[in-house]
């Protein structure tokens, strides 16, 4: 089997293959070096062929002889073969040249390819470095963009997002960038950026605190208005339901029955308080582990703001707005306590509240030092009460303010008392002390609803004629009217005060007693001293009696009123003071009557040594009795007081007559003068019977018994103790002795023996009476 012929590659074939090679394909990311393989392989094959040809040539040369021999043997065949061989040789030489040329071309082309390969590898290395640099720069740009974005977020108020971004940078996974100085510098700048966030969020909270201060008054105003609305609703409901009248606003019953209307003073149609800056600041500081720093700063800022609320001195006209600002301040604090967990300490808020409440009360007290109008105290109380009720709903302790209201109340009551004292004094001194008349200006129903009296007297007055004058004068009516006004103003102050009921009741009792005793009683007593008309004095006595009744009725009505408000029993002690003034009035009445009796006795012209006895009473007694009965019977007072006036007058008359008989002004008299005195006494007793007061004749018992001992010559009988105690107990020994001495003097001065003997006997009787009773006074 002949050997397999190798494939022959012509120069055209090789050139064609080389033209098809593209070392750098623009559409490919790698070089086309693999296409050179087959070509180089072909070239190598051609070189082997050339070696082979040389070997063949040497064989040919060695075989030439043999061939020549063979050719000679086979000349024709040989010639043909030689011809063929020469053709092959020619072709082989041509092939050799082509191979040599191709080898040079391939060598030239390979060098170019190596240079291109070297350049290509350098380009790839440069491109990789550039890619790495680009990636690094891009990573840096991303980080720088985050940092720049942090600044924008700080300016936009997105503090938490900014802080999170910084945390993201700090917690980036390790990369080639992590080891760069740039990244290390960036990490070192993160605390500064956190500080910027902290400063920015702090500034935001400071601005928020300023805004809160500016709107605190509005918050407080809305809260106070809401409380006033709630108070009105509860008052209306309490008036409709008698069972609710004992329950104040804020009581358990009120809280249960209160139809609550949801109204948030911090978030409503008129106002919205955004706590986001505070919450955001707390969140940021908590994340930065600096919450305690924020707590101290916040407490200091709020304390500074609370110190700026109250000016010095405190203007009372601005008190409502100031209390509203304080209310708003602590309503905000209450909301912060409820919504921020442990950020705000309840103790810190209580300290702020206690300090501000103390400064408020001190400022008010200082501003009220020169206040003389009770209405000023009332306005302060109204502002404080609305303030107290508002903050009680937010669980603030108002005990100190409640106690301060009681302190203000005591001062208010003193001023109110002083104000009404002036009114009462004017009423008493301007009154003419005549019975009050019912007219169109003062209808009887209005009058009876104003004064305090017993039910019996009220029914009696209602049944009498309209034109009938009332028992009292305008003093009693106007004083009752003003006492009602005083009570109204008194309770206007304590309305809504939930504590110290007994203190209020005691203060009311003391105030009313002071008004009634001093302002009314003493004023009437002063007016009484200058009153000369017994009729006016009688009217004063009637007024005083009605004041006594009014004290009891007033105490009962006030007790009933306070019982509906959980108060105690109110007792007035002014009744005893009026009793004393009544006694003064009676004494004044007796004094005026005695003054008139003195005038009448000045007209008396007794003859103390008459020669005969009179048959009719003295003329001055007619005028005296006529005046006395006219005056006393016309007095509009109780019959007991009339009897007392008569008794006082008769006692005075008896004393005057006894003074005539036994006093030192008349040195001597006879029995006829004594008989004339007894005739006057008989006349007076008859007049007493005529006016129906015969029981008052007992005023003359001593006079009659004393004179009966003398005229009946019963001195010896009187000297007997048993008789003296049984029949003459009212006779005073010294007076009897003085009368006997006067009779003795008269007898001693007479010329007839019988008269002288009688005078001597009277002297001895006087001595006997004096010896028996040496130590007794007249």
TrEMBL record:
GO-annotated biological processes: Golgi to plasma membrane transport; intracellular protein transport; vesicle tethering involved in exocytosis
Region of interest: Disordered: 749-778
A cellular component annotation (GO) from this entry: membrane
Record's compositionally biased regions (Basic and acidic residues): 753-768
Domain Exocyst complex component EXOC6/Sec15 N-terminal: 56-223
Top-level lineage group: Eukaryota
InterPro entries (alphabetical): EXOC6/Sec15, EXOC6/Sec15_C, EXOC6/Sec15_C_dom1, EXOC6_Sec15_N, EXOC6PINT-1/Sec15/Tip20_C_dom2
Residue intervals of the Exocyst complex subunit EXOC6/Sec15 C-terminal domain: 400-742
Pfam family of the protein (one): EXOC6_Sec15_N
Coiled coil among keywords: yes
Keywords: Coiled coil, Exocytosis, Transport
PANTHER family noted in UniProt: EXOCYST COMPLEX COMPONENT 6, SEC15
Family: Belongs to the SEC15 family.
Free-text function comment from the UniProt entry: Component of the exocyst complex involved in the docking of exocytic vesicles with fusion sites on the plasma membrane.
Protein name: Exocyst complex component SEC15
Species whose genome carries this gene: Hypholoma sublateritium (strain FD-334 SS-4)
């Amino acid at each position: 089997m002949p050997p397999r012929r190798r494939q022959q590659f012509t120069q055209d074939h090789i050139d064609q293959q080389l033209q098809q090679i593209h070392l750098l394909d623009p559409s490919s990311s790698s070089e086309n070096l693999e296409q050179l393989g087959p070509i180089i392989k072909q070239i190598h094959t051609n070189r082997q062929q050339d070696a082979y040809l040389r070997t063949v040539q040497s064989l040919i040369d060695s075989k030439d002889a043999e061939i020549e021999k063979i050719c000679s043997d086979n000349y024709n065949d040989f010639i043909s073969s030689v011809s063929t061989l020469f053709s092959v040789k020619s072709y082989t030489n041509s092939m050799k040249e082509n191979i040599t040329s191709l080898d040079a071309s391939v060598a030239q082309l390979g060098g170019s390819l190596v240079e291109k390969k070297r350049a290509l590898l350098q380009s790839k290395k440069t491109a990789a470095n550039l890619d790495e640099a680009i990636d690094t720069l891009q990573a840096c740009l991303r980080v720088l963009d985050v940092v720049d974005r942090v600044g924008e977020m700080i300016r936009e108020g997105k503090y938490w997002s900014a802080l999170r971004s910084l945390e993201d940078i700090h917690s980036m996974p390790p990369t080639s960038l992590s080891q760069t100085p740039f990244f290390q510098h960036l990490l070192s700048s993160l605390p500064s950026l956190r500080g910027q966030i902290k400063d920015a969020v702090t500034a935001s909270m400071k601005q928020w605190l300023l805004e809160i201060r500016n709107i605190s008054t509005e918050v407080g105003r809305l809260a106070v208005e809401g409380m006033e609305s709630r108070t009105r609703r509860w008052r209306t409901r309490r008036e409709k339901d008698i069972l609710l009248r004992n329950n104040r606003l804020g009581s358990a019953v009120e809280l249960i029955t209160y139809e609550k209307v949801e109204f948030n003073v911090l978030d409503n149609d008129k106002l919205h308080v955004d706590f986001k800056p505070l919450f955001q600041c707390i969140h940021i500081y908590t994340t930065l582990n600096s919450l305690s720093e924020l707590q101290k700063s916040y407490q200091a800022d709020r304390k500074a703001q609370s110190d700026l609320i109250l000016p010095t001195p405190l203007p009372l006209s601005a008190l409502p707005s100031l209390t509203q600002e304080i209310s708003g301040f602590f309503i905000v604090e209450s909301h912060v306590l409820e919504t921020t967990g442990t950020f705000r300490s309840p103790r810190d808020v209580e300290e702020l509240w206690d300090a501000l409440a103390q400064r408020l009360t001190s400022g008010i007290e200082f501003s009220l030092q020169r206040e003389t109008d009770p209405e000023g105290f009332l306005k302060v109380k109204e502002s404080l009460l609305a303030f107290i009720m508002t903050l009680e709903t937010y669980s603030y302790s108002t005990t100190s303010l409640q106690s301060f209201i009681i302190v203000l109340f005591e001062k208010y009551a003193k001023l109110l008392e002083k104000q009404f004292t002036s009114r009462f004094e004017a009423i008493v001194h301007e009154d003419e002390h005549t019975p009050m008349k019912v007219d169109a200006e003062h209808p009887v129903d209005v009058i009876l609803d104003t004064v305090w009296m017993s039910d019996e007297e009220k029914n009696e007055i209602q049944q009498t004629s309209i034109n009938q004058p009332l028992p009292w004068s305008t003093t009693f009516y106007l004083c009752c009217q003003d006492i009602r006004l005083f009570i109204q103003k008194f309770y206007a102050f304590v309305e809504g005060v939930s504590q110290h009921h007994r203190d209020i009741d005691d203060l009311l009792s003391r105030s009313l007693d002071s008004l009634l005793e001093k302002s009314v009683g003493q004023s009437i007593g002063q007016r009484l001293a200058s009153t000369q008309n017994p009729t006016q004095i009688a009217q004063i006595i009637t007024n005083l009696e009605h004041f006594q009744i009014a004290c009891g009725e007033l105490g009962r009505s006030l007790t009933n009123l306070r019982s509906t408000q959980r108060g105690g029993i109110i007792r007035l002690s002014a009744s005893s003071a009026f009793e004393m003034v009544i006694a003064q009035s009676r004494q004044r009445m007796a004094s005026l009557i005695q003054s008139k009796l003195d005038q009448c006795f000045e007209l008396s012209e007794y003859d103390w040594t008459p020669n005969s006895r009179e048959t009719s009473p003295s003329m001055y007694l007619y005028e005296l009795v006529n005046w006395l009965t006219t005056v006393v019977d016309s007095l509009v007072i109780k019959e007991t007081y009339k009897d007392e006036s008569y008794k006082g007058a008769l006692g005075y008359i008896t004393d005057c007559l006894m003074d005539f008989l036994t006093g030192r002004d008349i040195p001597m008299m006879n029995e006829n003068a004594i008989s004339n005195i007894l005739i006057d006494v008989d006349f007076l007793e008859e007049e007493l019977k005529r006016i129906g007061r015969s029981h008052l004749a007992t005023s003359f018992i001593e006079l009659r018994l004393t004179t009966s001992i003398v005229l009946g010559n019963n001195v010896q009988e009187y000297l007997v103790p048993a008789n003296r105690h049984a029949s003459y107990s009212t006779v005073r020994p010294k007076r009897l002795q003085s009368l006997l001495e006067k009779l003795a003097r008269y007898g001693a001065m007479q010329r007839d023996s019988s008269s002288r003997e009688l005078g001597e006997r009277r002297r001895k009787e006087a001595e006997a009476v004096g010896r028996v009773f040496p130590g007794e006074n007249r």
